[in-house]
Write a structure and sequence with these properties.
Elements (H helix, E strand, L loop, with lengths): L1 H5 L6 H13 L7 E2 L9 E2 L6 H22 L15 H20 L4 H22 L6 E3 L2 E6 L4 E2 L1 H19 L7 H21 L3 H17 L4 H20 L2 H11 L4 H4 L4 H13 L24 H37 L3 H26 L16 H25 L5
Antiparallel strand pairs: 1-2, 3-4, 4-5
Helix pairs in contact: 3-4, 3-13, 4-15, 5-6, 6-8, 6-14, 6-15, 7-8, 8-9, 8-14, 12-13, 13-14, 13-15, 14-15
């Protein structure tokens, strides 16, 4: 009797185990699913809702963008070139761009990733057609010697921004289709190289070498993450770097930019090719640790060209100082890393296209923000690239939010799968 009293009660054990198993199959939140993709130290992943942290970070960046675009452009009507504009002209337009982009992002969020995978090649082909239209006189719009925009009345659309998203989708779709022959150069790498070459020819004809560098990084990054043979990948990178070097060697304009970057304070360059760089460096120097105060930039008073677009980071550095620059860099690093984590989770769930596409978008944001910040800080030669989510521009904000909405859709479908449902 004493022995029987000490034994555990096994009655009903089978029923309790069956109940636990049923709740696990239904996705009960009492049985958390571990994000094992992040490694042994990764935290458990919530299996309900959206990535609210990513959403709030993007919202804060957009709010900060409105403040800084207004600050950087408020004095522009003093110039004869912008004399017909109101002081709040660029703020109002940027606010409208953000509103339109938000609606587009909400609509995009409703589209399943399987639909994007189906239409990826056709979207890429449509983008090529738009790039060709940009080069046709009376259709494409030229500004400062570059023909990169298609006028749409309320805004000037820049097809190269759409091409970044289209390349992320097309390269991911391509790797899924070529997964079984990814070790074969002719079958796996050569067709992608031809596609990238066509894009390069069209973008360099505008010219827009900065956008081509970002798109090339997206394509090569997805090839590498998709498992292309290491030697073939290194060969592709070497060929691409060689092509960039040849473009610089045989282009007087680009060669002078490199010389100006190497010696910006040289009197031969300070008032010419290095004019933007020298004034950007002056802005950062004036900002010191905590800045001159919001609205107190001197360089934005017609000294620093494109202060509200390509060189917005310099205005941030001058007005808010080193601390704000570090915070902005950290935020973009966090966004890039978070997008990569979502992509890795999708791959772990055997959703190769969704994972590679998300990581391609992460490469896009990481590469473009790195190049823009590097140009502003004098680490890289001057290129005409905006800072994602922050710089003024309708096409950039629109495609940035659409791309992030697609990433959120990937994350949402990941969570649905982890709850035991279907994507």
């Amino acid at each position: 009797m004493k022995l029987a009293a000490t034994l555990p009660d096994w009655s009903g054990l089978r029923e309790r185990l069956a109940g636990l198993w049923a709740r696990g199959r239904e996705g009960s939140e009492h049985l958390p699913i571990r994000d094992w993709v992040g490694g042994a130290t990764a935290r458990p992943t919530s299996v309900s809702g959206f990535d609210t942290a990513l959403i709030w970070v993007v919202v804060c960046l957009l709010a900060f963008s409105l403040v800084m675009v207004y600050s950087a452009s408020v004095a522009m009507p003093d110039s004869p070139k912008f004399s017909r504009y109101d002081t709040s002209y660029f703020l109002v337009r940027q606010s409208a761009f953000v509103a339109v982009a938000f609606v587009a992002a909400v609509v995009t969020l409703q589209i399943p990733i399987a639909t994007w995978e189906k239409w990826a090649p056709w979207l890429f082909a449509a983008t090529l057609a738009l790039l060709i239209l940009t080069l046709i006189p009376f259709i494409g719009k030229g500004v400062n010697g570059a023909r990169r925009w298609i006028p749409l009345g309320i805004m000037n659309f820049q097809p190269s921004e759409l091409c970044k998203l289209a390349m992320a989708m097309y390269a991911a779709s391509y790797m899924v289709r070529k997964m079984e022959v990814k070790e074969n150069f002719i079958k796996a790498v050569w067709p992608m190289a031809v596609s990238l070459g066509v894009v390069g020819v069209l973008l360099l004809a505008e010219p827009d070498m900065g956008a081509f560098m970002v798109i090339a990084a997206i394509a090569l990054g997805i090839l590498f993450l998709g498992g292309v043979n290491g030697r073939m990948f290194l060969l592709s990178v070497a060929v691409l770097v060689g092509a960039f070097v040849l473009m610089i060697v045989f282009s007087e304009f680009r060669r002078q930019r490199i010389f100006a970057y190497l010696d910006p304070w040289n009197p031969n360059y300070a008032q010419g090719k290095a004019y933007q760089l020298t004034h950007s460096l002056i802005a950062f120097g004036r900002g010191e640790v905590f800045g001159q105060g919001l609205g107190n930039s001197i360089e934005k008073l017609h000294y620093l060209p494109e202060a509200h677009t390509d060189f917005l980071m310099a205005v941030i550095g001058e007005e808010l100082g080193f601390v704000a620059v570090v915070i902005v860099i950290s935020v973009f690093f966090w966004i890039t890393r978070r997008v990569f984590v979502i992509g890795r989770q999708a791959i772990a769930l055997d959703r190769i296209f969704a994972g590679l596409m998300a990581q391609g978008i992460g490469i896009w944001f990481g590469a473009q923000s790195f190049i823009n910040m590097g140009v502003n800080l004098g680490v890289l030669p001057t290129k005409g690239l905006t800072l994602p989510l922050l710089s003024y521009g309708g096409s950039g904000v629109l495609l940035n939010l659409v791309a992030l909405a697609i990433v959120l859709r990937v994350d949402q479908e990941n969570r649905q799968l982890m709850r035991g449902g279907r994507a």
